[in-house]
Specification:
Elements lengths: L1 H8 L13 H4 L4 H4 L5 H9 L11 H13 L9 H7 L8 H6 L5 H4 L7 H13 L12 H6 L9 H4 L5
């Protein structure tokens, strides 16, 4: 339905007020389609707020979006800073374990919004959390507020992490 709607909306060219349309529509446009109305950074900031689950997790379209986002944001290696993590939004759910490990705690806030994780992502999240080198600190120093911030990641925590969290 969304891809059909995009065809109708763009029938006479790309509308100038594209930002006023639902974010999910943008999933069916390319950054070059959007270029006339804004920057690729703005396009991916909007994509990051869209419901990515409209596209299947391992689909080529979703993988291509992530590759284009990394290129647009000029992320050279596997380290994503906080500003870029904010722009990527829900796209971080598709980043592999290498990205999660080398980005330290920069991705945790966005990762906690993901529906599910692949095994290498889970392992990387546990590794980052266990290191304690995040803005949240080590699990022994966490409060109820911290757990609330990371609530989406709790199912990934193993016994060694859970036992360190203060009652």
């Amino acid at each position: 339905q969304l891809s059909c709607l995009v065809k109708m909306v763009t029938l006479h060219g790309i509308p100038k007020d594209l930002d006023s349309y639902p974010k999910d529509l943008l999933l069916f446009l390319s950054p070059s389609d959007y270029a006339a109305t804004g920057s690729c950074r703005q396009y991916f900031a909007n994509i990051g707020r869209a419901n990515l689950d409209v596209l299947q997790r391992e689909s080529s379209q979703r993988k291509q979006l992530l590759l284009e986002a990394l290129a647009c944001l000029k992320i050279p290696g596997t380290q994503v800073n906080e500003e870029n993590a904010e722009i990527l939004g829900r796209l971080v759910c598709d980043l592999g374990g290498k990205y999660i490990k080398s980005s330290g705690g920069n991705l945790l806030k966005q990762l906690s919004q993901c529906e599910s994780f692949l095994p290498d992502q889970e392992e990387a999240i546990r590794s980052v959390i266990s290191s304690g080198n995040t803005t949240f600190g080590p699990p022994v120093a966490w409060s109820a507020f911290t757990l609330n911030e990371l609530s989406g990641l709790i199912p990934v925590f193993d016994h060694s992490i859970l036992q360190k969290i203060p009652k």
